[in-house]
Specification:
6-stranded parallel beta sheet; 9-stranded mixed beta sheet; 14 helices; single chain; binds 6-O-phosphono-beta-D-glucopyranose; 2 domains; 504 residues; 20% strand
């Protein structure tokens, strides 16, 4: 195991929910697993006036995200001693006091002037933080190293993402910037690379000659909950599609990299993203995209709020909670292969999966048979991989039924699967940016999403379809998917077959 250098993690926006919910639990797990270097501390920084003790209570000792009763007392106490807090006046005001505290802690705990700055703040202050860090000499790498982890959203549009890249690059080099996308930290997303490039059985088929279409579904059963204020300014395209789903698309579509390292893998991903056909024509956008919003419903006697009734949401909101897009990738591998990608809240179940639909046999010998070949890569839950293929039903004649060949991650006993934030933080600690998005990748994804977003937002007459909570989005989405094929509406288990619906 590669050992990380001694270092300090400085979290901006440390009094916010992400720190308590994801970051501290992830680092605690790394600590328990023995992944932290000998000298490692965390300094929370934000505008709330907290002491070290308050911070320790908030994010660990009294945090509802921990069940400390299960942990050894000694372990808790040595982890507690790694946590510190420094209030700041504002993200755009002078960082001299913060720099002094960092310097003092660095001396006391010998973190060798190696710093990771985690931006868990509203994006509008990213630039100010980078600039302030540079002005107190914390962005340079003369003695130790300095890295910046940037949370999503990375821009609200192509233009704002390009500006943000330019602004950050004034103070940090690209090699110091780690744009986090927690989907890349999911074991099953990484397994896409291994499935494709460590098996000789899939790659020869992975192209226009054998694949009929690709389907990617990301569904959540929950609504926007308490995040209405944020979500209403964002919507499904910005919140999920531009980042998580475009990252998955790039891993499905990319060419084999020369080597399994950050530069080569990201070069191929960006090439794939750049090959996606951009839709600029309003008619093409309307034909190939669908937006929807969940409306109030009752499920088994329980009243479910409609999106416009959620807290923080404009009662006349035109923000999409459902987005489905059909698109093409203009290169040799993918010519004429449609990609159908959808994401939504308030679906029947929580699931993310990729379905590779193979073409039918050139000549159908067994009429009336159902032997569609599919490869299903289940990202969550019930993580695994399944192949569907035709087998003969015993008895006279040749009746064909579909059978499943499957693998489940849960079968791998003795292996602890790291949570996404745990894996990504460890990579950043070790200086490995493979699972972080590079600036050009983010911009390439925005280039595709931006015209759709603009068209949807600037044209009030673009249809916004309502769908009841607990169904697979608006019915019209079935028209998006061509010919006789239909969406695979998956269930909570990988082997569940299409048609699962909470209401039926
Ligand atoms: C976040 C989005 O990035 O991902 C949320 O902002 C969404 O709206 C979440 O709920 C989904 O993540 P996961 O890992 O639960 O699929």
């Amino acid at each position: 195991m590669k050992q990380a250098d001694n270092q300090m993690l400085i979290i901006f926006g440390a009094s916010g929910d992400l720190t308590a919910r994801k970051l501290i639990p992830a680092i605690f797990d790394l600590f328990k697993g023995g992944f932290l270097p000998d000298n490692y501390i965390i300094l929370g920084a934000s505008r709330s006036k907290l002491s070290d003790e308050d911070f320790r209570n908030r994010v660990l000792l009294e945090s509802s995200y921990f069940d400390l009763g299960k942990e050894e007392k000694e372990l808790i106490s040595s982890f507690t001693n790694k946590l510190f807090y420094e209030p700041i006046k504002g993200y755009e005001s002078d960082f001299t006091d913060l720099a002094k505290r960092i310097g003092q802690l660095d001396k006391d705990y010998q973190t060798d002037q190696n710093y990771i700055f985690y931006l868990s703040t509203p994006p509008r202050v990213y630039k100010g933080i980078a600039e302030n860090l540079a002005s107190v000499g914390l962005s340079g790498e003369t003695t130790g190293w300095s890295r910046l982890i940037v949370e999503k959203p990375f821009g609200y549009s192509l233009e704002t993402a390009q500006n943000l890249n330019k602004e950050l690059l004034q103070y940090f080099n690209e090699s110091q910037i780690y744009r986090i996308d927690h989907y890349l930290g999911k074991e099953t997303v990484q397994n896409l690379l291994v499935t494709r490039f460590s098996n000789s059985i899939f790659e020869p088929l992975w192209n226009r000659n054998y694949i009929q279409h690709i389907e990617i579904t990301n569904a959540e059963d929950i609504g926007v909950g308490s995040r209405g204020g944020y979500y209403d300014k964002s919507g499904a395209l910005r919140d999920m599609f531009q980042n998580h789903l475009m990252q998955i698309v790039s891993l499905v579509a990319m060419e084999p990299p020369l080597e399994a390292n950050a530069a080569e893998i990201r070069n191929e991903k960006v090439k794939a993203l750049r090959s996606i056909r951009i839709m600029n024509d309003p008619e093409v956008i309307e034909k190939n995209t669908i937006r929807g919003q969940y409306v109030a419903t009752e499920i088994a006697g329980e009243k479910i709020k409609g999106y416009r009734d959620e807290e923080g949401v404009d009662p006349e909101s035109l923000t999409e909670t459902y987005a489905a897009i059909k698109f093409y990738i203009d290169n040799w591998r993918w010519k004429d292969v449609p990609f159908y990608v959808r994401t939504a809240k308030r679906m029947p179940t929580k699931v993310t999966e990729i379905v590779v639909h193979f073409k039918p046999t050139p000549h159908n010998l067994f009429s009336g048979s159902n032997s569609d070949n599919k490869l299903i890569i289940r990202i969550q839950p019930n993580e695994g991989v399944m192949i569907k293929f035709g087998v003969k039903v015993p008895g006279q004649g040749f009746k064909v039924e579909q059978a499943n060949l499957d693998f489940y991650y849960s079968q791998l006993t003795g292996t602890k699967v790291m949570q996404a934030y745990e894996r990504l933080l460890l990579d950043a600690m070790q200086g490995d940016a493979t699972l972080y998005a590079r600036g050009d990748e983010v911009e390439a994804a925005w280039k595709f999403v931006d015209p759709i977003l603009k068209h949807w937002h600037q044209n009030k007459d673009v249809r916004m379809y309502g769908y009841g909570a607990g169904v697979w989005g608006p019915e019209v989405a079935n028209e998006l998917i061509d010919g006789e094929i239909s969406w695979r509406n998956p269930g909570p288990n990988l082997s569940d077959d299409p048609g699962y619906c909470l209401l039926c």
